[in-house]
From TrEMBL, chain A:
Protein name, entry field: Sugar ABC transporter permease
A Pfam family assignment: BPD_transp_2
Record carries keyword Glycoprotein: no
InterPro entries given in the database record: ABC_transp_permease
Superkingdom as given in the UniProt entry: Bacteria
GO molecular function, one term: transmembrane transporter activity
TrEMBL record, chain B:
One GO term describing the cellular component: plasma membrane
Membrane topology: Multi-pass membrane protein
Keyword terms: Cell membrane, Membrane, Transmembrane, Transmembrane helix
Annotated protein name in UniProt: Sugar ABC transporter permease
Coiled-coil annotated spans: none
Subcellular location: Cell membrane
One Pfam family cited in the UniProt record for this chain: BPD_transp_2
Organism listed in the record: Mesorhizobium helmanticense
GO MF assignments: transmembrane transporter activity
PANTHER family cross-referenced by the UniProt entry: GUANOSINE ABC TRANSPORTER PERMEASE PROTEIN NUPQ, SUGAR ABC TRANSPORTER INTEGRAL MEMBRANE PROTEIN-RELATED
Membrane-traversing stretches: 6-29, 41-59, 92-114, 159-176, 206-225, 288-306
Chief location bin: membrane
UniProtKB/TrEMBL annotation, chain C:
Protein's membrane topology: Peripheral membrane protein
Domain ABC transporter: 6-241, 258-505
Listed Pfam families: ABC_tran
Protein family (similarity comment): Belongs to the ABC transporter superfamily.
Phylogenetic classification of the source organism: Bacteria, Pseudomonadati, Pseudomonadota, Alphaproteobacteria, Hyphomicrobiales
Protein name: Heme ABC transporter ATP-binding protein
Organism from which the protein derives: Mesorhizobium helmanticense
A single GO molecular function term of this UniProt record: ATP binding
Length: 379, 323, 510
């Protein structure tokens, strides 16, 4: 790339450009709404009201956001190491196997606060394991990690169908899902937190996984910016040559980064299973792994940005459901379109508006953009 | 004789199941040979399927359906080109975006326009591509061995099936016997060589993506207008990714692509056929194992344990004139 | 002299803040071989890329055959009969020779006719110029010498009357280079014009009619080859720079710190870049390695510092061997007291996207001083960075600023501060002052000498002859991967220039 580095002030780089990209994505989405004959402004109002208007709306928004925080963090950790983990979907799905086994084994004997940590470890371990093989193949055999992780998504799907039909479902049942977990594997809800603020909630699935997600966001921040390992990952992600110079082992760092990424993807499975449905069912991940890509791109790979972006997407999911209810012409799939548009404009077309913004800044204050050039000449 | 009939039936469905894979795989071949990774095959097939079925049912014409499938699919390919060629964006990210937009917009527009839960109306006979019965197929059916092969395997498919298999030698011919093919292969290997030879890298890659769009459009039309009498949401069901796997498996060669797709189609057909039936010696093979096999084989191939899949060298990298 | 084939008038070209070509004037006579010499980065390749339409000049005029020409794309250049053989071959590796030759010059939409035509045309060219090559061979299976011949054939097939060759002998063996020169002479006899870009003076003397010298983006002089000498050209190339000589005392060389023995290193293409080199580096001395860029110095540095694997040979650090042929680990070498300031600070020595303080621990990030358990000790790192900023006068004095926002000189100081402050026993420095302003040069030189006076062993590789002469206690001259001579600091520029041009080696061989 010709000018990848700081030519704009940081607030423009991390604030203005993502906002412009997001705005364009929403404007295009607005046209889609018009295409089906509805008023995009009214749609936006319904969407926001649906997401934040009532207590249960907020709870649902945060419930969806929980899963997206995990998957966004997963994509971000790999991306900091220069790797594109598109396999969060499969890593999360396969983690359901670990969670299922743990919960079925312990839900009758242990209280939730003992089952939960075991399930966390199991989900993280399964996710990490599922990322390990693509990571190893990338590091040692040069197999393109994007392709291998895609393949592993499908392999995971087959394994899970096999496991669910084969031994996880009760023999008497036809449905490919585990029996409902007992109290020992049901996570407590967090709705009371929102009720503290005076809102009334009938039933919403927001549960303590949300807190776990926030803790993980903090830990990821710690990992990336405050640990030696994170330093090594970032070095490799920015410049493999510099990493080689600094004595960082390529194989080791790729494998570790991918396993952490896989573990985070695995942990996203806790929220819909133990937190909401109280079982492990077919397709319970339902695309959340891919949403992580949009969330991570939108959040600029920073945990704070990821939490905000996850809440934005949670809002889209919850508000989208309301929207589908209020406007029959618009289905919940509107949010899938918006996700795609966000990935397109915040990801693939990330730099489309940058030259214009730069030109704008240059016309106002030549110094702020000219800093590098001026110094380069002075040297 | 039962076994023979069973084999014929499995082979027949192998052909039917491998056609969309084959078309998508060849589509990917054009784009990846030109140095543009395309994991958006899935999405382009899906919009093709939707546009085809929707237009066919509205205009009561299979041909208009096919045309619309191609048109919309090409439009999506151009979005990919705009992001990854013109703006040098990440090709993977762009492909993912296209898959999302396709998945969402087909269902939403389908629901808004036809109000059938994301489906398009069932296509009437004139609105879909019918099977073509070859002369004498019925008469010869009684002939042992050859009769059923002729009647079931060779005759009785829609025009798109024959088209798909004709596109294989055609693609080979384009790639290796025409100026366009020569340049297309060159731009995927070393765009700088193409640039210094005075050929526009961007325009060449755009043209490759147009080919991709045309073929994914036909693949989509096949799904919604041949295999199924209308569009059903998410009807590609990962076929775009299997096609990608087949492309790697075929080492980016057209004739190999046909065999890879037939193999993957065969595994699919077999898994449907064997559902619950125990095999001699091996016993009962889980359906899921057969379904995962294409992906597992591709990973093993990628790992370099069975031959080496060397992708076009400039694949995935936006072309920037070096300083 | 015959009429001019090409005239360049007042050509300017900048890349961002870098002025690659300034006000270049050049006239190349028809039917001659015209050499253009200059060090790496002098702007030769940029100039030729402008002529070939790969870049556009910011200003200036090009005349071809006396007529003003507008060359906007390679196609325009090809149309005007200009062909180019690039330094990095513009070939499609898995294509056949024929396919490469016709690419972009196909006669119609189907290949059959083009291929038939090219086949007979290649036969003719083979007869006329001795350009033998199997038309059906696959490029990647051909030796580099033949690949280059395909590049020449490509240009001739397109009807080139003027052939530009950019560093054509860089990848060739001496025998292949000789063969190339015979071909070029033949082309000249047939009336073609040849422009030869190189930094090897021997080649210039051997086959050119005229030679132009470039230095730092400007055209310094043009000479008739017969009337000039290698010494004069070397001087013109390197230039007499105003140098602030740094005062230094006599070296007190102590024990051998680094012993390099029979080291051989190949690059990724398999070309031998370091050829059986042996030398010692002692405590308390600065050894300078002089040489024109591209003669194996970079590979030598990378091998010693553990970044690149060596093919054979050994390196002893403090009497203990370093395993260079296996998986050498730069981290382990650092622990053993070997510090390395790499030539390419932008991609190797620094991560430009990092904050300054993050770069000030690169490679030492596993040092206990910067860690608290698995965590980075941010305060310690930033304080340490601030100390270095003060001590090395790095500006702006902001350890949180992105490294990309520092000037070249200050970036280099960041690297030097990091490596020197680790108190290493051996310091290896590649291009200590490349892209660095004059003030910083003096500072850096003083620091290096101070290191020496503290009894450290310092190895400096530089293409700046003045720098080498001013810093070194001993000077080793590298040419074509070998050390072709050792001189004291009193050696004259001309003497070193001859060694750098490989002249003495050749004479000694004969």
């Amino acid at each position: 790339m010709s000018t990848p580095y700081a030519k704009l002030p940081a607030w423009a780089d991390y604030g203005l450009i993502p906002v412009i990209n997001l705005a364009v994505a929403f404007i295009v989405a607005g046209f889609v709404v018009m295409l089906v004959g509805e008023n995009p402004f009214r749609a936006a109002v319904i969407l926001v009201e649906g997401a934040f208007g009532r207590g249960s709306g907020i709870a649902f928004t945060l419930f969806y956001a929980t899963t997206f925080i995990f998957s966004g963090l997963s994509v971000a950790v790999a991306a900091h190491c220069g790797l594109f983990n598109i396999g969060g979907e499969g890593q999360g799905y396969i983690a359901g196997l670990g969670i299922g086994i743990v919960c079925l084994a312990f839900d009758s004997v242990l209280p939730w606060w003992l089952t939960f940590p075991i399930a966390i470890v199991a989900s993280a371990a399964m996710g990490a394991l599922w990322a390990l093989i693509p990571a190893y193949l990338q590091a040692k055999r040069g197999s393109h990690i994007v392709i291998t992780t895609i393949m592993f998504n499908f392999i995971a799907a087959s394994v899970m169908v096999y496991a669910l039909v084969g031994f996880l479902k009760p023999p008497s049942s036809m449905a490919p899902q585990t029996r409902t977990f007992l109290d020992g594997a049901q996570l407590p809800k967090l709705n009371w937190v929102i009720e503290l603020f005076g809102a009334k909630i009938r039933s919403a699935p927001l549960n303590i996984c949300f807190l776990l997600a926030l803790v993980m966001a903090f830990l990821v921040w710690l990992l990336i910016w405050r640990t030696r390992l994170g330093y090594e990952m970032r070095t490799y992600g920015h410049s493999p040559k510099a990493a080689r110079y600094a004595g960082i082992s390529e194989t080791r760092i790729i494998i570790i980064a991918m396993m952490i990424s896989g573990a985070l993807a695995g942990m996203m499975a806790l929220n819909p299973t133990m937190g909401d449905q109280h079982n492990v069912a077919l397709d319970f991940v339902s695309g959340a792994g891919f949403v992580g890509i949009a969330v991570a791109l939108m959040g600029r790979l920073h945990p704070v940005g990821i939490v905000l972006a996850a809440i934005l997407f949670g809002m889209l999911y919850q508000g989208g459901a309301e929207l589908a209810f209020e406007m029959p012409a618009i289905s919940r799939d509107m949010i899938v379109i918006i996700q795609g548009l966000v990935i397109l404009f915040a990801g693939a077309l990330e730099h489309m508006f940058r030259p214009y913004v730069q030109a704008l800044f240059a016309s106002f204050s030549p110094r702020s953009v000219g800093i590098e050039a001026a110094k380069g000449k002075g040297a | 004789m039962d076994l023979f009939n069973a084999i014929i039936q499995v082979l027949d469905s192998t052909i039917r199941l491998s056609v969309p894979l084959l078309l998508a795989c060849l589509a990917g071949l054009y784009s990846e040979r030109a140095g543009v990774f395309d994991i958006g095959l899935e999405g382009k097939m899906l919009v093709g399927a939707f546009a085809g079925a929707a237009a066919a049912s509205v205009f009561h014409s299979a041909l208009i359906g096919l045309g619309m499938a191609i048109l919309i699919s090409v439009a999506f390919a151009m979005i990919h080109g705009f992001a990854s060629i013109t703006h040098r964006g990440n090709q993977i990210v762009s492909g993912v975006a296209i898959n999302f937009i396709a998945a969402g917009s087909t269902i939403m527009l389908g629901q808004a326009w036809f109000s059938q839960g994301g489906r398009t109306p069932a296509l009437a006979p004139g609105e879909r591509f019918e099977a073509i019965n070859w002369p004498g197929a019925e008469a010869l059916r009684a002939v042992p061995i050859l009769g059923p092969i002729y009647a079931e395997l060779i005759s009785g498919h829609s025009i798109l099936v024959y088209l798909a298999f004709l596109i294989v030698p055609f693609t080979w011919w384009v790639l290796f016997r025409t100026r366009f093919g020569l340049r297309l292969r060159a731009v995927g290997e070393n765009p700088a060589a193409v640039d210094t030879a005075g050929i526009s890298v961007a325009w060449l890659r755009y043209r490759a993506l147009i080919c991709t769009g045309v073929l994914t459009g036909i693949a989509g039309a096949y799904l919604s207008m041949v295999q199924n009498g209308g569009f059903v949401k998410d009807m590609t069901a990962g076929k775009g990714y299997i096609a990608l796997a087949a492309l790697i498996f075929a080492k980016w060669k057209p004739v190999n692509a046909m065999f890879a797709c037939l193999l993957f189609g065969f595994l699919d057909a077999l898994s449907i056929r064997l559902q619950g039936t125990p095999l001699p010696v091996i016993g009962k093979v889980p359906v899921q194992f057969m379904q995962a096999l294409p992906y597992v084989l591709t990973v093993i191939l990628l790992a370099g344990f069975i031959g080496k899949a060397i992708p076009p060298r400039a694949g995935g990298v936006p072309y920037v004139k070096e300083r | 002299m015959a009429q001019a084939a090409i005239e360049l008038i007042g050509i300017n070209k900048s890349f961002g803040a870098v002025r690659a070509n300034r006000d270049i004037n050049l006239e190349i006579a028809r039917g001659t071989i015209h050499g253009i010499v200059g060090e790496n980065g002098a702007g030769k390749s940029t100039l030729m890329s402008i002529l070939y339409g790969f870049y556009q000049a910011d200003s200036g005029e090009i005349r071809v055959g006396g007529k003003p020409a507008s060359i906007k794309t390679p196609n325009d250049a090809i149309g005007l009969g200009i062909g180019m053989v690039h330094q990095h071959f513009m070939l499609v590796d898995n294509f056949s020779v024929l396919e490469n030759v016709i690419l972009g010059a196909e006669s119609d939409a189907l290949l059959k006719k083009s291929i038939a035509k090219a086949r007979s045309e290649l036969e003719r060219l083979e007869r006329e110029y001795g350009l033998e090559v199997d038309p059906d061979a696959i490029i990647e299976e051909l030796p580099v010498g033949l690949q280059q011949r395909v590049e020449i054939l490509k240009a001739l097939y397109r009807g080139a009357e003027i052939l530009i060759l950019d560093e054509p002998t860089g990848v060739l063996t001496p025998a292949e280079a000789d063969h190339l020169f015979r071909i070029l002479k033949q082309l000249k006899e047939q009336g073609k014009t040849v422009v030869l870009i190189t930094h090897k003076l021997r080649e210039i003397m051997a086959i050119t009619d005229k030679v132009s010298v470039m230095r730092q983006g400007t055209m310094v002089a043009t000479r008739v080859t017969k009337e000039t000498t290698v010494g004069e050209l070397a001087e013109l190339m390197v230039g007499r720079r105003v140098l602030l000589r740094v005062e230094k005392g006599e070296a007190e060389a102590g024990a051998v710190k680094l012993a390099v023995k029979n080291l051989t290193v190949k690059d990724q293409r398999g070309v031998t870049m370091v050829d059986d080199i042996s030398f010692d580096l002692r405590a308390g001395e600065i050894v300078g390695i002089a040489g024109v860029a591209g003669n194996g110095q970079s590979e030598l540095l990378e091998a010693i510092s553990g970044i690149r694997r060596a093919v054979s040979g050994s390196v002893m650090l403090d009497g203990k061997p370093i395993d260079l042929t296996g998986a050498a680990d730069p981290g382990e070498l650092r622990d053993r007291g070997l510090a390395h300031v790499p030539e390419d600070r932008h991609h190797v020595g620094l991560v430009l996207a990092f904050e300054e303080n993050e770069n000030s621990i690169l490679g030492y990030h596993d040092d206990e001083r910067y860690l608290r358990g698995p965590f980075l000790d941010i305060d310690a790192i930033r304080n340490d960075a601030k100390d270095k900023i003060t001590k090395y006068d790095i500006r702006p004095a902001d350890c949180r600023l992105k490294t990309a926002n520092f000037s070249g000189g200050n970036q280099q100081k960041i690297v030097l501060a990091r490596e020197m402050e680790q108190d290493p026993g051996v310091l290896i420095v590649g291009q200590p002052t490349r892209g660095v302003d004059v003030g910083a040069i003096e500072f850096i030189h003083k620091r290096l000498i101070a290191m020496r006076d503290q009894g450290k062993a310092v190895l400096v590789v530089s293409v700046e002859l003045d720098e080498i002469r001013s810093l070194s206690d001993r000077i080793l001259v590298m040419f074509a991967g070998r050390i072709v001579g050792e001189r004291g600091p009193e050696a004259t520029e001309g003497e070193l220039g001859l060694l750098m041009a490989g002249v003495e080696q050749r004479e000694a061989a004969e």
